[in-house]
Design brief:
- The chain has 279 residues and is of the alpha/beta class.
- The protein folds into 2 domains: 86 residues, Leucine Dehydrogenase, chain A, domain 1 (Rossmann fold, 3-Layer(aba) Sandwich), CATH 3.40.50.10860; 123 residues, NAD(P)-binding Rossmann-like Domain (Rossmann fold).
- It has 10 helices and 11 strands.
- Bound molecules: NADP nicotinamide-adenine-dinucleotide phosphate.
- The site of NADP nicotinamide-adenine-dinucleotide phosphate has 25 residues, from helix 10.
Length: 279
C-alpha cells in the first residue's frame, strides 16, 4: 500500500514550529504584520482570505485587512500598495487574486515591494529563485518541497516530471526541484506523448487543473505522486488531477485531495511572513 503523504499533519507541524518562532521574536520585541488586500467579494476569495487570517491568528502574526469595493480603480489600488510598501509596521503584503477584470494584475504584483512579496509572484522574487538567491518562493511549490522532505522522500538525482507550467505552480516547482538536485522535465498542453514522459518519473507533480486526468498508465511502478489539482468533478465533488483509486495501488507514495498539497499553501505563506523579519 502506498504511503499517504499527509498535508494536514505536515502543515500543522510547520504552523506549530512558526508559532514558537514568533513567540520567541515577540519576546525580543519583534512582531510580524501581514496586510491582506481583497477587492470585491468573490466568494472563493473571501474563503481564502478568511483562512489566511485564521492561520495568522494561530501563528501569532497580526493580519491587517483591507476590504475594498469591486469598483476600486487600478490607480486607487496601486496607491494603497505603495502606502503599504512605505509603512514600516507592515512586513508582508498579500493582494488576493484574481482581481476584478478592470485591474491589471501584473501591474499590481509589480507594485508590491519585493521585500514584502510574501506570495513570491514579483518578477524579482521569481528571478532570485532561478539564480539561487535568497527570496520569497511561491507558496504551493515551496509546500510541495516540504511535503517531500518531511515524508522522508529524497529529491537529489531523482527524475522529476512536472505536468503544468503555470507561473504560480509549474515553473517555480521546476526551479525548486532543480535547487534540490532533481533532474527536471516540465510538460504542458502541447507536450507530445505525455504518458511516455510522466511514466518515467520517480517523482511526478500533477498541476494541470483537469479532474482525475492522470491515470495508472501515466505513472511508473513505485513512483511518488504529488497532486496539486483542485477541481470539481461532474457531481461537484472536490478532486485532484490524479485518479487516486487507479494510481494509488501502483505507487510508493501519494498525496490525497483534499488534505495533501492544499493545506501546505497557507502554512508556507505563514513561513514567508515570518521570513520577512528573520535575520
Ligand atoms: P493553470 O494556470 O491553468 O495551468 C495549467 C497548466 O497545465 C498549463 O501549463 C497547461 O499547459 C497545462 N495543461 C493543461 N492541460 C494539459 C494537458 N492535457 N497535458 C499537459 N499539460 C496540460 O493552472 P495552475 O494555476 O497551475 O493550477 C493547476 C491546478 O492546481 C488547478 O487545479 C488549481 O486549482 C490547482 N492549484 C492548487 C493549489 C493548492 O494550494 N492546492 C494552488 C494553486 C493551484 P499550457 O501552458 O500549454 O496551457
Amino acid at each position: 500500500m502506498a504511503q499517504l503523504i499527509d498535508g494536514k499533519r505536515i502543515s500543522q507541524e510547520i504552523k506549530d514550529e512558526l508559532k514558537i518562532e514568533v513567540q520567541k521574536m515577540e519576546e525580543q520585541g519583534i512582531s510580524v504584520c501581514l496586510a491582506v488586500v481583497q477587492v470585491g467579494n468573490d466568494p472563493a476569495s473571501t474563503v481564502y482570505v478568511r483562512n489566511k487570517k485564521k492561520a495568522c491568528a494561530y501563528v501569532g502574526i497580526e493580519s491587517r485587512a483591507y476590504e475594498l469595493p469591486e469598483e476600486t480603480t487600478e490607480e486607487e489600488l496601486v496607491r494603497l500598495v505603495e502606502e503599504l510598501n512605505q509603512d514600516a509596521s507592515v512586513n508582508g503584503i498579500l493582494v488576493q487574486l484574481p482581481l476584478p477584470s478592470h485591474i491589471d494584475e501584473d501591474r499590481i504584483i509589480r507594485t508590491i515591494s519585493p521585500d514584502k512579496d510574501v506570495d513570491g509572484f514579483h518578477p524579482v522574487s521569481v528571478g532570485r529563485l532561478w539564480i539561487g538567491e535568497k527570496g520569497f518562493v511561491s507558496c504551493t511549490p515551496a509546500g510541495i518541497i516540504q511535503l517531500l522532505k518531511r515524508s522522508g522522500i529524497g529529491i537529489e538525482g531523482k527524475n522529476c516530471v512536472i505536468a503544468g507550467r503555470s507561473n504560480i505552480v509549474g515553473k517555480p516547482m521546476a526551479a525548486l526541484l532543480l535547487r534540490e538536485n532533481g533532474t527536471v522535465t516540465v510538460t504542458h498542453s502541447r507536450t507530445k506523448n505525455l504518458s511516455e514522459i510522466t511514466s518515467k518519473a520517480d517523482i511526478l507533480i500533477a498541476a494541470i487543473g483537469k479532474a482525475r486526468f492522470i491515470t495508472a498508465e501515466y505513472v511508473k511502478d513505485g513512483a511518488v505522486v504529488i497532486d496539486v489539482g483542485m477541481n470539481r468533478d461532474e457531481e461537484g465533488h472536490l478532486c485532484g488531477d490524479v485518479d487516486f483509486e487507479d494510481v494509488e495501488p501502483k505507487v510508493s507514495a501519494i498525496t490525497p485531495v483534499p488534505g495533501g498539497v492544499g493545506p501546505m499553501t497557507i502554512a508556507m505563506l505563514m513561513n514567508n511572513c515570518v521570513e520577512t523579519v528573520r535575520c
